[in-house]
Amino acid sequence: MQSSTSSFASSTSSTTSDAQSAPPELTQLFRDICKNSAELLRLSGRDVPERWNIADLVEAVIGDDALLIPGHLQDTYYDVLSKGCSSWLFKDLSEFIELTQNLV
Question: Is the distance from CB of 48 to CB of 96 less than 8 angstroms?
Fold first, then answer.
């Protein structure tokens, strides 16, 4: 059985592979979520850890399976757009970054 934390060690190639296996509209939603999340992190003064890229970070927080669920990605996209730094994803990304920085 695969551990739920196994997605934390995600690589760019696995994220790209996951995105390529999704329908085009999901791939675009994921890209837009990543773009908006990166901008929110930048505006809040947070940096994506050097060993991560934004796509891997978002995938680790959202979860691999959620990338294939249209309703979940759409809800996440609109939540990030409408709530910005108050969105669940931004809060979880911030907590994840803080947690990983505390482990180093």
Answer: no
What is the domain partition of the chain in residue ranges?
A: 11-103
Residues in the chain where the model's pLDDT stays below 50: 1-12, 19
> Which one-letter amino acid corresponds to residue 26?
L
Gyration radius (Cα) of the chain, Å: 13
- Determine contact, residues 93/61, Cβ cutoff 8 Å: yes
What pTM does this model have?
0.74
- Cα separation, 27 vs 6, whole angstroms: 22
User: Residue 23 and residue 92: Cα distance in Å, rounded?
Assistant: 25
For residue 2, give the amino acid letter.
Answer: Q
Q: Is 46 within 8 Å of 92 (Cβ atoms)? A: no
